[in-house]
Amino acid sequence: MKYFVFKVMAVEAGFIDEYPKGSPTDWKFDEGISLAKEFPVGGEVSFSKNYPDDRNLYDFQPNLMSDLLVSGRGRKLIESLEITNAEWLPVVVKDHKGNVVGPDYAFLNLQGAEPAIDMERSVYRMDSLEKDQIGRVKNLVLQYDAISPQAKMFRCTMERRLILIREDVHTAFVEAGLTGFKVYNAEGWNGLEL
Asked: In terms of pTM, does the model score above 0.70?
């Protein structure tokens, strides 16, 4: 099975630069823990006033927090793929003027993590603040036998901000025409997003 590093990227996207008011502390969104009870009902996010000309909506909407902000269309596809570690935190997306442009978006909070990174063979630098997390990957090597056969889209235990997807998930995203993302072959990835 092949895996890809999954990154949210899009051109002239309405850039979201903060979570809804009343959201849990930012760092909690990277932990792979349930946030449904803490997340505000009826949450709203807005396009950043720092990028007034960028207004495009995508299935994966770029945001400062580097989280997965997913359209209703993207959510339906992900749910159809039976990705069992998905927790959905619904929000409404508004434009710069406060008009609703994305009524059915949600943050995809992937639960748990997989020990996918071969720590002995990969080249990396540990994070200076979070001592148990990788800060920068220079050459990613996977340990395939440690990844659950059911894991289709997941965080990595040693770098929880790093999202990997299985090749069948990538194929489904491409065939459905989902927008706003880019992938890199996980094996040998150098940490760059070009």
From this structure: yes
